[in-house]
């Protein structure tokens, strides 16, 4: 009997997916592919883009980021921050309900402030083992209920141990989504594939490694600016084709609605050398290019005993001046990205300083600092090892070639991803390629990488850079609640990084998306979020 029931279930699931596959061409279904697969739909584990995208359709938090990276209301309709910056008070909407679930006595129920206390405490609970636990580090656990207090169903207070300007940005991350206690505790670890949230879509079916289907939440609380009920789409259909060329072919055939990023295998087919769309696709494909909060750079371990030469600030400056970032982007990345010539903090953030003077290719300046370092034209300078992974060998070889022309010998060492990350975190690489993608939209997220109290392996300061003035500005910025004043501290810190050159900024990344022209209201932001609640499909 069990075997027969199982067979009927599998047959039914097959029919569902078969029917759903036939419906993927309907105008109200948005289709995209996730080549890396999806391991969970539990927001407490939303650590990568592959998970963040679907989780963001299913769940909501107190606040959300809009297209301009500004913090906007979500389940919290308004909030207030105390003058000290240590108390946040949120007022919740009264019309937000969880998706239907058999676990609820009445199929669904209203979201309350207590649900957020449970969700945020769950995030930092050791038993949950969430990679987002660090987000609650500033919460003052000695206050109220572990740093949280529900005055009633719609008023939530969060107490911090110190002012932290990026806290609202943190609360906008999918990690901080609201989840229902009774459903989470009923399913335990299986909440990963039985997610119940409040978002514009709910999980209809998931055959892991094959297809995932989300359906429209007819009771979603947000409205469009014209008053329309959201979302417009009836469904979101996610496939799992792991071969990038096959994914591209499905997109060209119109079976996938968008692809994100540009793979080497089809880069020159879609883009010209200048980074514009190939004209032969202009009638049916559209393109989005926008600043992406990711800085690509090379880093020096400034206290390394294995590469004494790299302790020399003038040699580090010579390397910074010694190669052409513009040419590198044009020939290796089809101009996707912007040369990093204004410091470390990337474009797209409000505090970005367009007037900052960073490093621009200048052979004379490179030779000047090389001589000042004690190595005129590279004389007596031993080969410097630059470590990277296979994905970035072409960039490193370009830099290697250009630096060789001024007498700086570079040797490239290629490691696997896991080995490379371990060597970086344990301070075993004197000179290495790195990147930093923002966790939340505040420059503090970038500048914390050079705060002396964040030395790796206990923090993200992989260069072991230390500067008293820098630390002083960083600590002052944490206490400053006025954005314009805080941005001045940020810019002073970035200036110190340019002056002392513990890094070689390469480029500020850009996100690029290609999508079918029948898609309307398709957009993103500097965090590469997938906004689908406003998307429509034209006839």
Q: How can the largest sheet be summarized?
A: 5 strands, antiparallel
Structural class comes to alpha+beta
Q: Using DSSP, what is the number of strands?
A: 19
Which fold name is given in CATH as the topology of the largest domain? Answer: D-Maltodextrin-Binding Protein, domain 2
Task: Kindly state the percentage of residues in helix.
Answer: 25-40%
Name the beta content range.
15-25%
Radius of gyration: 25 Å
Tally the helices: 15
CATH class of the largest domain: Alpha Beta
What general outline do the C-alpha atoms trace? globular
Residue stretches low in confidence (pLDDT < 50, at least 5 long) are 1-25
CATH architecture of the largest domain: 3-Layer(aba) Sandwich
* Distance N to C terminus: 47 Å
